[in-house]
Write a structure and sequence with these properties.
The chain has 86 residues and is mainly α. The protein contains 3 helices and no strands.
Amino acid sequence: MKPLKHEAELFKGAMLAGVKYAEGRGVVEFEATDSASEKLLYIYRLLVHDKVIQPLPEEQVAEKTLRHKLAIWYSKQLPKDHPLLN
């Protein structure tokens, strides 16, 4: 797994987009007390369930790999000339 350039910033954007996606679907309302890890896992499972992203083998489901997977998902939604992609 090769780290993406600007992966941390892409992940932050992915979390915001993922929360918006999940709440927009009406399937969850995240609370301020929910941890980032809980949100990350929920968003990942929802995106897999909706067939938006390919699932990882269950033994590879860890916070580091999920952060990377969501960063990739988010990067594919950005315009080609976005600063985070350069």
